[in-house]
UniProtKB/TrEMBL annotation:
Classification via InterPro entries: A/G_cyclase, Cyclic_nucleotide_synthase, HNOB_dom_associated, Nucleotide_cyclase
Region (Disordered): 151-187
Entry-linked Gene3D superfamilies: 6.10.250.780, Nucleotide cyclase
E.C. number(s) listed in UniProt: 4.6.1.2
Organism: Zosterops lateralis melanops
Record protein name field: guanylate cyclase
Matches recorded under PANTHER family: ATRIAL NATRIURETIC PEPTIDE RECEPTOR 1, GUANYLYL CYCLASE
Residue runs in coiled coils: 27-65
Domain Guanylate cyclase stretches: 97-140
PROSITE patterns named in the record: GUANYLATE_CYCLASE_2
GO annotation, cellular component aspect: plasma membrane
Length: 187
């Protein structure tokens, strides 16, 4: 069959050669060539359906991961606009509160602690911050980074209310309440 597709006409078999090959092929399979072609097409269709299902599932999983990441790094309203394919307009706020916190002596403390103790401390701090800021209409961006010039880690949280929202968090006027005290490992 592939010889029939040759670019050069001289390389293609003539009808007599094709007929001989088809008869030879038909004797080997002892079935009608049409039945054979239909059987192959059915196999290809089944394989194609399986492949489409696999690819669809992989696509949906990647889409779910991308959306989860989008919601983690952007405010909910911005993420929704991006998902709908809309242009996100920059917003200006009359006042905002940006909160930075520093774990004083973290480098020394972590040097004296086990990795599990450091993870537990950071988890407790994040849980404490999350419990407090959940009471306000704020956007939290959080990250841990080492300040190389000072050698201290910094945890960032900053609030950004939804535009037009009547509930003003006034986070700057509230002192952080101790909803729970993080456990500080001591060797």
């Amino acid at each position: 069959m592939q010889h029939c597709w040759a670019e050069d006409a001289l390389e293609r078999p003539d009808f007599n050669q094709i007929r001989v090959q088809l008869r030879k092929f038909n004797r080997e399979n002892s079935t009608n060539i049409l039945d054979n072609l239909l059987s192959r097409m059915e196999q290809y269709a089944n394989n194609l359906e399986e492949l489409v299902e696999e690819r669809t599932q992989a696509y949906l999983e990647e889409k779910r991961k991308a959306e989860a990441l989008l919601y983690q790094i952007l405010p909910h309203s911005v993420a929704e606009q991006l998902k709908r394919g809309e242009t996100v307009q920059a917003e200006a706020f009359d006042s905002v509160t940006i909160y930075f916190s520093d774990i004083v002596g973290f480098t020394a403390l972590s040097a004296q602690s086990t990795p599990l103790q450091v993870v537990t401390l950071l988890n407790d701090l994040y849980t404490c911050f999350d419990a407090i800021i959940d009471n306000f209409d704020v956007y939290k961006e959080s990250g841990i980074r080492e300040l190389w010039n000072q050698g201290n880690p910094e945890i960032q949280n900053h609030g950004m209310p939804e535009s037009g929202n009547t509930r003003n968090p006034k986070s700057g006027n509230h002192r952080i309440r101790k909803s729970q005290n993080p456990r500080v490992p001591v060797s």
